[in-house]
Amino acid sequence: MDLKGLTIKKFSEGLKKKEFSTEEGVNAFIKTIEEKNSELNAFLKFDLEVHKERALEKAKELDKTIAAGKPVGKLAGVGLGIKDVILIEGTRATASSKILEKYTASYDATVIRKLKDADALFLGKTNLDEFAMGSSTENSAFGVTKNPYDTNLVAGGSSGGSAAAVASDMVLGALGSDTGGSIRQPAAFCGVVGLKPTYGAVSRYGLMAMASSLDQIGPFGKTVEDAAILFSKIAGNDPYDATSYAIDYKNITEPDFKEIKNLTIGVPDEYFVEGLEKEVGDEIHRVIEELKSQGFKFKKISLPHTKYALSCYYIVQPAEVSTNLSRFDGIRYGTREKAKNLLELYKKDKSEGFGPESKHRIILGTFVLSSGYYDAYYNKAQRVRALIKQDFDEAFKDVDVVLTPVTPTLPFKIGEKTMDPLQMYLSDIFTVPANLAGIPGISIPVKGRVGKLPVGFQLMAPRWREADILGIGMYYERN
Where is the active site (predicted)? Predict the structure, then answer.
């Protein structure tokens, strides 16, 4: 069974036509993981056997149900990878951190429950930067994930494992989390589609909290249509997440292209600045010209506070990190190091359990929340955040969608930026504004780059308007 080029839609159609069985599909996924994962390190190696056994057992049940002529879920037999910050009951959940190396999830995240209801199969937990803090998946306690296009390069982060797993055909789709670009940036580096939904569109129940006002679960797919299919299954209100909303995404996988072509696309000057590699900029302009030739209207816009977004993000996010990660104290969670007293336990657990980047952000976050600095830093950052959101609100009065680059550079070499945190953080300069504003964003691979490293372009829309960016993406893919 050839998985290359196989999408969720094609897989579902093949299953209906009985071109293959669910069990045959699962065995093909498992074989590909066994062949490729040792080199790419997209999947965390522990618990792979558990997921394999569960997937095969579920596949056999589905085949019996199909043979009996009974209905199955819309994602029956679809093999997925799940970022290891999303809980699956009875399996390890480490956030790629030593501090949670022995932790086993006691319940399913809401998105997992919804995917189980749709009869999806989980083939393993994917690698990430520790607690989703990073832009290259080099901060994982369990090794670097490599880019399927060139194993000397990073896969992006923090959801690098999910992006690499989809790009290398180990799975048909995956889930990641996006706090400042952690779905869109690795999607761009690995040449797949990555969607960050509106904040509140998808329940965060069962997602390990990193920065609660920014985190959002979203899908990876080989196509925009696949991303839309996965999103339609995980979106919706959840009584266990008070920030989630009930929005009707009923027809999101079947856009009306006549309506889509009436949308006006805005292009902000602030995203085409010094530091944007020429090759990346040229490709984004090529996409713009192609969409213009297909009849889309474009308009220049301004998002004047964009230049403050990265600074704002790296105050708000570490502040929330320092609060959320304080629960890993060696008692309820943690390494449970032997210690003479409580203070020694805290010191041992956190110093030996957390990696360098996590420690860095915890310290920074604790500082900006401390007495005397709270107003000078955190409160000021929140005011700037409101201005960034206001920029988008004003822009969306004149345009329906905003088009920008996803990243300023092509995928970079492993180790190239590890000693320069500022250069690493700049990888997210075009993605963090959407998180700060709470709006949806998607990374879509630029077509026609066969034999070259992938480049992604980003579409952003007003809150709850995922249909617009997915619709334009599907139109671009099909034309």
Answer: 83 (charge relay system), 158 (charge relay system), 182 (acyl-ester intermediate)
> What is the rounded distance in angstroms from the CA atom of residue 10 to the CA atom of residue 78?
10
CATH superfamily name and code, 257-310+375-478 = Amidase signature (AS) domain (3.90.1300.10)
Q: Catalytic pick from 135, 182, 232, 443? A: 182
Q: What is the pLDDT of residues 315-358, one digit of tens each?
A: 999 999 999 999 888 777 777 778 888 888 888 888 889 999 99
DSSP string of 243-301, one letter each residue: T------TTTTS--HHHHTT-EEEEEGGGS-TTS-HHHHHHHHHHHHHHHHTT-EEEEE
The catalytic position among 9, 36, 52, 83 is 83
pLDDT for 333: 77
| pLDDT score at 351 | 87
Judge whether 83 counts as a catalytic residue: yes
Q: What's the pLDDT tens digit per position in 404-423?
A: 999 999 999 999 999 888 89
Residue 203 annotated to the active site = no
Q: Does domain 8-234 have CATH number 3.10.450.50?
A: no
Q: Note whether 137 and 129 are within 8 A (CB).
A: yes
Catalytic hit among 96, 136, 140, 158 = 158
| pTM of the predicted model over 0.90 | yes
